[in-house]
Design brief:
With about 60 residues, the chain is mainly alpha-helical. It has a domain of about 25 residues. The protein has two helices and no strands. It is rod-shaped. About 0% of the residues are buried.
């Protein structure tokens, strides 16, 4: 595809963005709001960290 043709296609594709003024998405791809890890994995991590902290406090109090 010639450079002029590419520019014409891009202009046509993004011409609707001119009238949106500030509501233009940053990219063409739909953004997914999925977390990279599952919720149960985050819960397990918090349980392990908080649990070990509690055991350390108890151990410190006893000693």
């Amino acid at each position: 595809m010639a450079p002029k043709q590419r520019m014409a296609v891009a202009n046509k594709q993004f011409s609707k963005n001119v009238t949106q003024r500030g509501n233009v998405p940053k990219g063409n791809k739909a953004t997914e709001s999925k977390l990279p890890t599952s919720q149960w994995l985050i819960g397990l991590f918090i349980f392990v960290v908080c649990g070990s902290a509690i055991f350390e406090v108890i151990r410190y109090i006893k000693a």
